[in-house]
Design goal:
16-stranded antiparallel sheet
Length: 830
């Protein structure tokens, strides 16, 4: 039998050669190709790939007529070679029968990956590189795979500032697995490259210092820079070059450009940057004309635009006042808040004379759009009606962009949804002039557990608390609603217990309905509480010393529309009864009863944009808490009365003011400025200051339990209650006036709703006085430090701070005072 073999080889440059052998002496003449019909195709050498797929990839088909030698065979080899799966490819004619030719695709597969390892990197870096490379066991090792992997490793270290990093990948055959290889990735990071200096050429119109400041992520290496990096990254450098041009444009130099930049190494660890700038001419705004406006006059639009002839030509100001002013005081908001969803305006430069540019505003007003449908998606726990009652865009109303923005803020304030993923999808229908609005939310856990221990009154106190912040009372008796608790109606139920055993126990429960009656945002809050402290002796025994407190409160809240709809009021009436038996460690009398029946009125304004990590807005509150002036209606001579008689019905008036402002500085860096003031007054000089409801300042604000209504206020850098007036015996007796000021820089590490983390640095000061005539707003105990906050939905806000107190404390010697303090916080803000 004759053995005829056709061999066609394809090199890595896709060069093909075919050879047909007839016996040992006959070779087909390449100058005289012959036509053959493919009688059959077989595959050999393929262990891991499907033979039918290989035949399809080759493009050869049984029954097809081809020339041998010919282009069709070469193209088949190219098709297979492009797959990157083979190290060698041969097409062999195993048999020729007349005009029939039978082909065998002889293949040598590329090795597959068995495992890979890194050399020269840390364990944490190796873990991140594994995620970045996405290599998996069994993957075919191709030249493209090796090149791509090398690039990804280099890119990883370049992003970290290792501009001179070197990477090599060595492929080794795996002796334990046939046709498998091991990849070893060798990394030499070298030195981290930072920027020594930044230089400008051709800069005269603006200060170089201002240009360098505008480059937020490209900074010169300086020892005083703690929070900003000075590593050189190509991507951020390109962005910062645009910010340099933005500075020029804001100064009227609209034609300014960086015509050339050079980055060159001055050492293994430093580079120098030079940028050549062509500033161009300085321009000013000329005449502003409006075309196409019918709803509003030119005068009204010019007033909103707030750009006058002769103002510096700043494109960013023009765009901001036309399209997207942060305060919604722009032309587009003016129209869109009146339903003109289809509104558009195009500024066109119509004249440039010398240094003055005239602009024509081409307006398309369109028709007013009416809201058709409003829907909510993504809520898996919270009932639709709880969300819809917070939505300010109602069907039948005109479209309003401001109302949409405000709705997103109100939904974030609920605390049930991930504020970072809140979204809105307007779906306009120009044909009928309507728009459907879809609000997209993502549920997050909102219930909280408090499990903590603390030291107070010389004892270890444990606390267990449960807060259900999206509770549903109406489903309490529905078996199917317990998953694990009835939820979704936006009510708040809180249960808390605190104890150190037989010496102290405290229980309280509260319930809040935010929409009493379901039609208006009027809240109802109720609470009850009971606590007892004793010397541990059983009830009824003559040696028992105890104080028992029982009480409750009812409050009503209401949202206001004046002066604006960020305001709200809250009115509360509460009662506490103190029953003392042989108890003299805290109070002025040992046996008897004391009653505290008081009213509290609060007016507040809250405009922060998010409850967990606010970036903008403020929180302000002013409250007065007061009891009836019983002594004015009593015939008792309080000058000679006993303490038991004097304090049977406690009387006082208590005023508090709290303010907190949030402002975004740059990116997500936020400054929080806070101020607090409190004053406890009295009606009758013969009774004097109330021993209850006083202020205790200093420390972490978690000083255990309080039995006399005291208000515990944190001041970092000082020990607990240390900034508090003391009596003759040296014990703290509480203040009647306090002041506190705080400046805090915050930066988020993670805004993930399952674990929001941010770092902070603070400077604060405060003081506490026994009488109002001692008050000095400039005499503050100062401190500074830094800290970390972690918000976990299950546990609330957890924090740790280190603070350093600068000023001496009256009554405490400097040698005995620890100026460096660590503070821990649970579920509270300092």
């Amino acid at each position: 039998m004759r053995k005829l073999i056709v061999v066609i080889l394809l090199s890595c440059f896709h060069q093909a050669m075919a050879q047909v052998s007839i016996g040992d002496d006959n070779i087909i003449d390449y100058t005289d190709p012959k036509d053959f019909e493919i009688g059959g195709i077989t595959v050999s050498g393929a262990q891991y790939l499907d033979e039918s797929v290989i035949k399809t990839l080759s493009g050869l088909v049984v029954g097809e007529t081809i020339k041998v030698p010919g282009e069709r065979i070469s193209r088949a080899i190219e098709n297979l070679w492009k797959q990157g799966l083979f190290a060698d490819i041969q097409i062999v004619a195993s048999r020729i029968d007349g005009n029939l030719i039978f082909l065998d695709l002889k293949l040598q597969e590329r090795p597959r990956l068995s495992k890979f390892a890194f050399k020269g990197v840390s364990k944490s870096e190796a873990d991140k590189l594994r995620e970045k490379l996405e290599l998996s066991r069994g993957k075919v090792i191709t030249k493209n795979l090796l090149a791509t992997s090398e690039f990804k490793v280099l890119d990883f270290y370049t992003d970290k500032g290792y501009m001179n990093a070197k990477v090599s990948i060595v492929e080794e055959a795996d002796s334990t697995l046939a046709n498998h290889s091991i990849l070893r990735v060798f990394v030499d990071k070298g030195q981290k490259v930072k920027i020594r200096d930044i230089r400008f050429e051709g800069v005269t119109a603006v200060k170089e210092k201002k240009l360098k400041k505008a480059m937020k992520n490209t900074k010169e290496k300086r020892t005083y820079r703690i929070f900003t990096t000075s590593k050189f990254l190509d991507e951020t450098f390109e962005k910062d070059k645009r910010k340099v041009i933005d500075v020029y444009k804001a100064a009227g130099y609209r034609d300014a450009e960086i015509v050339h930049d050079t980055v060159f190494a001055v050492s293994d660890k430093r580079v120098s940057i030079t940028m050549k700038v062509e500033e161009g001419n300085k321009y000013y705004f000329g005449d502003m004309t409006w075309i196409g406006n019918a709803k509003y006059s030119d005068e009204t639009l010019n007033k909103i635009l707030n750009i006058k002839r002769g103002d510096l030509y700043d494109q960013s100001v023009l765009e901001s006042n036309l399209f997207m002013n942060l305060k919604s005081n722009d032309v587009t908001s003016l129209y869109m808040d009146d339903g003109y969803l289809f509104f558009s305006v195009t500024p066109v430069e119509v004249s440039v004379e010398n240094d003055t540019i005239d602009i024509e505003m081409r307006v398309y007003e369109g028709k007013q759009a009416t809201i058709n449908k409003v829907s909510v998606t993504g809520n898996t726990k919270t009932n639709d009606r709880v969300i819809i009652r917070e939505i300010r865009t109602k069907p039948g109303q005109l479209f309003s962009r401001t109302n949409i923005i405000r709705t997103q803020r109100e939904l974030a304030q609920l605390g049930y949804f991930n504020q970072e993923s809140l979204n809105v999808n307007p779906k306009p229908n120009p044909a009928d002039g309507t728009v459907d609005i879809e609000y997209v939310v993502e549920e997050k856990p909102s219930d909280q557990v408090e499990l903590s221990g603390g030291w107070g009154a010389g004892q270890l106190v444990g606390t267990l608390g449960l807060s259900f912040n999206n509770f549903s009372a109406r489903n309490f008796f529905k078996k199917d609603a317990w998953r694990p608790l009835p939820s979704g109606d936006g009510q708040r139920l809180s249960i808390r217990a605190q104890s150190n055993g037989k010496y102290y126990q405290s229980y309280n429960a509260s319930f809040t309905e935010p929409w009493l009656g379901g039609k208006k945002p009027n809240s109802l809050s109720t609470s009850v509480f009971y606590s007892v402290q004793s010397n541990g002796v059983a009830i009824g025994e003559p040696l028992r010393e105890s104080i028992q407190i029982i009480g409750g409160s009812v409050g009503l809240g209401k949202r206001l529309t004046f002066p604006d709809d960020y305001f709200s009021t809250y009115s509360e009436v509460s009662f506490q009864n103190y029953t003392l038996k042989n108890y003299s460690s805290t109070f002025l009398f040992s046996n008897g009863n004391s009653n505290n029946f008081n009213f509290r009125q609060t007016i507040s304004r809250n405009s922060i944009d998010a409850p967990i990590f606010p970036r903008n807005g403020s929180q302000l509150s002013l409250s007065v808490q007061f009891t009836p002036p019983y002594s004015l209606f009593s015939s008792t001579d309080f000058k000679t009365a006993t303490d038991k008689e004097r304090y049977k019905w406690i009387e006082y008036h208590k005023w508090k003011f709290n303010a907190s402002w949030f402002n975004k500085i740059v990116g997500n860096l936020v400054i929080n400025t806070k101020a607090s003031f409190g004053f406890l007054g009295h009606y009758n000089n013969d009774i004097g200051q109330s021993p209850f409801e006083r202020f205790y300042l200093g420390g972490d604000g978690l000083a255990g339990f309080a039995l006399d209504g005291r208000e515990i206020i944190g001041l970092r850098g000082y020990s607990n209650n240390s900034i508090t007036p003391r009596g003759v015996s040296g014990n703290t007796i509480g203040g009647t006036v306090f002041e506190k000021m705080t400046f805090e820089l915050r930066y988020p590490i993670s805004l993930n709703p399952s674990a929001t983390v941010y770092a902070l640095a603070f400077a604060e000061g405060g003081n506490n006085w026994f009488r109002i005539n001692q008050f000095n707003p400039f005499n503050l105990q100062r401190s500074s430090g830094f800290g970390l906050r972690i918000f976990l939905p299950m546990f609330g806000l957890l924090g740790i701070d280190w603070g350093y107190g600068f000023d001496p404390i009256p009554g405490i010697t400097e040698s005995s005072r620890d100026k460096s303090q660590f503070h821990f916080s649970i579920g509270q803000q300092f």
